[in-house]
Specification:
The chain has 172 residues and is α+β, with helices and mostly antiparallel strands. It has a single domain, classed as Thiol Ester Dehydrase, Chain A (Roll). It is 16% helix and 38% strand. It is built from two helices and six strands; from the N terminus they run ββαββββα. The protein has a six-stranded antiparallel beta sheet. The model has no long low-confidence stretch (mean pLDDT 90).
């Protein structure tokens, strides 16, 4: 995985739940195109694209699924069952992803996810649910249909290992 859309895992209950956070920062390149200043003097409106918010949930839930199998399987996102994002995430806010395991077996898993937006001010911090994302994952080696894949686990890279250990969790 080249791009990480989560910064830290704050809770991991094996085979049950994972909570991760992503701090949205103006220094992220993708925000400058969503949405750039308009030709008529319209001010820029930097927002994190909903597709990347959904990817953050997929990474969070994928780690939960991978952890449940001891990171022995190549876990890939198979299907977005449903996704609804109701509000934009802007620089200076934090996204909190809560992924809950719904089903886990030899062929894969399904998860239900809640996305919350944490807004920070000088005196308060508010948390608002802004989305729900339900996903299905496949254990690639169990569902390969005769195709051969590399022996090493190309899904859970060193970046994910660093994320787990820096968050205080044991990596594979």
């Amino acid at each position: 995985m080249r791009w990480m859309w989560i910064d830290r895992i704050v809770e991991l209950v094996p085979r049950e739940r994972l909570v991760a956070v992503k701090n949205v920062s103006l220094s992220e390149e993708h925000l400058h195109d969503h949405f750039a200043a308009g030709a008529g003097g319209q001010a820029p409106l930097p927002v994190m694209p909903a597709s990347l918010i959904i990817e953050g949930m997929a990474q969070s839930a994928g780690i939960l699924v991978g952890h449940a199998g001891g990171f022995k399987e190549k876990v890939v996102l198979a299907k977005v069952n449903s996704a609804e994002i109701t509000r934009d995430a802007t620089p200076g806010t934090t996204l909190r992803y809560t992924a809950a395991m719904e089903r886990f077996d030899i062929t894969g898993a399904s998860t239900k996810g809640i996305v919350e937006l944490i807004e920070h001010t000088a005196t308060t911090q508010t948390c608002t649910e802004i989305g729900r994302v339900d996903l299905m994952f496949s254990h690639l080696d169990q569902n390969r249909g005769g195709a051969e894949f590399p022996k090493h686990n190309f899904v859970f890279s060193e970046s994910f290992r660093t994320l787990l250990t820096s968050s205080g969790f044991e990596a594979w």
